[in-house]
Structure formats: C-alpha cells, structure tokens
Amino acid sequence: MRSTLLFLVYIILVAFGLHQHEMWRDEIQAWNLVHDSASIPDLFRTIRYEGHPVLWFLVLWPFSKFGHDPHTIQVVHFCMAAFVAFLVIYKSPLRFYQQIAVLFSYFLFFEYGLISRNYLIGIALLLGIAVLWKNDRKNSWSIGILLFLLFQSNAFMALIAAAVLLMLMLELFHNQVLFKPQNLLPVVFAMAGGVLFLITIVPPPDNSYAPIWNLHFWPGLAVTTIGKITAGLLPVPEFKTAFWGTRLIENSIVNALIAVPVGTALLWSLRKNTPVFVFTLASFGLMLLFLYLKPVGTYRHYGHFSMALLFAYWINAYRSEQPRMTSFIFNSVFLVQLPVGLFAAFTDWKNPFSNAVHAADYIEKNMPENVRIAGAFNYLSTPVAGYLQKEIFFLNDGRYSDYVIWREKYWNYKATHLSQAELFSKFVETVDVRKSNVLIMSYTLDPYTLNDAAREGQVQLMKLNGRNYKVTCVKVYAGAIVEDENYYLYTFSEI
C-alpha cells in the first residue's frame, strides 16, 4: 500500500512539475532538430554537430511527425520518469526510506526528472540492467541489448556502460562462462554499442562547441576535477531564485578534500565484492578522466557519480549484506540531496525556469501572424522559436532556423559577442521594418550589455545606417532561473 502511495505521489508531483516547468534552450534544441529532420538519414545529418549519441533523438523523432508542439517532449519524458519510479519502488532492493530519498533527490526529482534531456533515458536503461543483474547469466542477452542502448544515451552514461560491461565480463570470466556463446555474443554486441557511440559522438572537424581537449597535466585542474565528485554526490547550490548551476562551496580544494575520503571509503567498503568494486572504480575513474580531458560541465554531468553510486549499491545488495560504510555513504548522499531536490523543484514551480514560452506567447497574442521575427543570438532565440513553432531569423549567423548549428561558421566568438548597436543595425538591414516586426533580445550578465537593456515601454530614437528609427521596447520578461533567458522584445519603425 505504501509503495503504491509513494509511486502515485511521485508521478503526480513530476507531472505537476513538468507542467509548471518552462523548457530552456537545450530541451527545445533536441525537439527542433528532430522535427526539422524529414527522415532518419536526414536526422543523422542534422545532429552531427551536437556531440550527443543518437538514442534520445531517435525516441523523439516519430513523435515529432505528429506535430510541432514542444510539450510533446515532456510527455515522453514523464513516461520515462514513471518507469524509473516503478523500478526504484517495485524492483529495487532499497528500503522504503531509501526509495523516498532517491526518488526525491536533487538529480532524480529535479535535474533529470523535470528537465527533459537525454539523461533520464540513460538512467532508465541503467536501472533496467540493475534489475536484470540479479540473474545475470539467464539475462545475458537482455543485459547486452540494454548496454548497447546505454552507450547511445549520453557521453557520461556511455562511460558508465563501459564500466558495467567490464564488470559483466569480469563476473562471467570468474564463473568460467564468459566464452560460452550465449554469454560471449551479448558481450560482443554490447561492445558494438560502444563502437557505434564513438562513431556517432565525434563531430565534424569544423565543430566549434567546446572543441578543445586538455592533454597536459595541470595540478590545479586535477584538484578541481576531483572536486567534481563532491558536486556530483552532494549538489548544494546557493539558495536563491537563480540557483541553477551555482555551488554553495566553490573552493576546489575544499571540494577535493571532501571527495577523496568519501571516494576512498566507498571503494574500501566495496572491496570484498570484486565486480562491484571494479565497476565503481572504473565508472568514477572514467568520468574523472573525461572531465579532466574535457574540462567543461555542470551538475547535470556530475550527477552521474550519484547514478553510478546508486547502481553499485543496488548490485551489491544482490551478493552480500551491505557494509555499514557503504550504507552510510549511500544514505548520506541521497538524504542530503532530498531537501535540495525539493528546494529546486519548488523554486522552479514558483518562478519561470526560462522566459522563452512567455515571450513566444506574447508574440502570438499581440503580433500579426505574418510578423517579421528576428532573434539577436541564435542559441538564446531557439527556445522562443520552438514555442512559436516556426523558424526565425538569427541576426548573428544569418540563417532562418529554429536550432543552432555548432559549426565554426555559425558559432564563434564574434557571432556571440555582438553589441546592441551592431544587432540593431543588422536588424534594420535584414528585416523590412515598414511592416510588423519584432526583435528578440536577451542580455548576458555582463554589466556593459545590461546597461543597454531598455525598460518596458521605453522609446528610443536612433539613427541606424543613415536613417532615423523609433525603437520601442514593448515587453520585458525578467526573473528567470536561467538568467540569460530573460527576454526584451523590441519593435522598429522608420521615422
């Protein structure tokens, strides 16, 4: 009875949270990409600059053919959240209080539960493998298939998939059954998933989004990277409206001093279960290596340390009684995350996560259907385009589109650092301001650019390209959790 109640409470709160959540650019980007892809081969061409595996796009693609409403992505995401909750409540070895802590943790409840990205699908596959692991020899083909798919979910889950595959091979080898065809073939199939991941994840040479790899040893960076374990296990942000991506403890040395003893104690407590020990060491190690070589990321990436811990704890329960230290670390991590998850969700319920949907709603209700729309910056304008369900003109890259192409030609320093004066000039050059028009602006947190922002209703007389214009700020949307998705809508008329 209490399990059913927990399941219902969780899915109701997730459904309410998704309804209240305004999607931001990374969520809408995936939807716009699949909607604009006419076929599966076309989809592969469209996403080649994304740097993500294909699974999430393939899941969304058929739904996008029934319409362009971006809320569809949240319906798909809700179904996966319900499935994850079902596995945790009805199929896991976790105690009831642990189920509550895990489901309402920062990552499963908010970061992966309410934000519709390609992370929850990986968690669903990982926990599916955990369920099957209880009879791993009987379920070797099912595990192999899920591992193949897990490699295609996202880069961090691919690293965890490699660690799971290593654990599977070690366990089968220990039991002297690895080279039996019924076990070896699923292992090879899973390896093929890893190869496919490597083929599809590598973008073309002119990719310009985070293209740099760090191939040198920097002690400071090593300390910072180790500290990301703390961010992934104990994600405590600043308790304010714009909390997302902030860290209460930013000092990298302090974070590393927390991560090292926690990680060491966890490995020591798992030492008697060799496969689980190897998985934990490999998964944490691979993710640390990747974060060092590619020193970018935020909580949604670091949270995979928590997911690896959940999987290790789950699998360890099948073979032996949980060591006290393992249980202490597991309980501490998820009980700390519980209030943070509730805070994040409540803040999202009360405040706009992004103001893109509100900007789009204003344009639809107050502008004629044939209004000329331009967005100042492509990456900041895509969520508005997604909610409008139409392409708009990107001033900084010269395209009519509703998604960003992470290509040097369209995504470079110059294209993302245009001044307001430059953008206004480009607008009157490319948009017929004698007809209904609107410019979508969003300002960064740079004080210089913020000083350019107008007040709602403010009228400015400007001389642009030798002509005089009246520029009116017709609407301002502020207060979003994602601070660069606050929008200013301008209209232009020639005097």
Automatic annotation (TrEMBL):
<feature type="transmembrane region" description="Helical">
    <location>
        <begin position="184"/>
        <end position="203"/>
    </location>
</feature>
<feature type="transmembrane region" description="Helical">
    <location>
        <begin position="145"/>
        <end position="172"/>
    </location>
</feature>
<feature type="transmembrane region" description="Helical">
    <location>
        <begin position="102"/>
        <end position="133"/>
    </location>
</feature>
<feature type="transmembrane region" description="Helical">
    <location>
        <begin position="248"/>
        <end position="270"/>
    </location>
</feature>
<feature type="transmembrane region" description="Helical">
    <location>
        <begin position="215"/>
        <end position="236"/>
    </location>
</feature>
<keyword id="KW-1133">Transmembrane helix</keyword>
<keyword id="KW-0812">Transmembrane</keyword>
<feature type="transmembrane region" description="Helical">
    <location>
        <begin position="71"/>
        <end position="90"/>
    </location>
</feature>
<keyword id="KW-0472">Membrane</keyword>
<protein>
    <recommendedName>
        <fullName>Glycosyltransferase RgtA/B/C/D-like domain-containing protein</fullName>
    </recommendedName>
</protein>
<feature type="transmembrane region" description="Helical">
    <location>
        <begin position="276"/>
        <end position="293"/>
    </location>
</feature>
<feature type="transmembrane region" description="Helical">
    <location>
        <begin position="325"/>
        <end position="346"/>
    </location>
</feature>
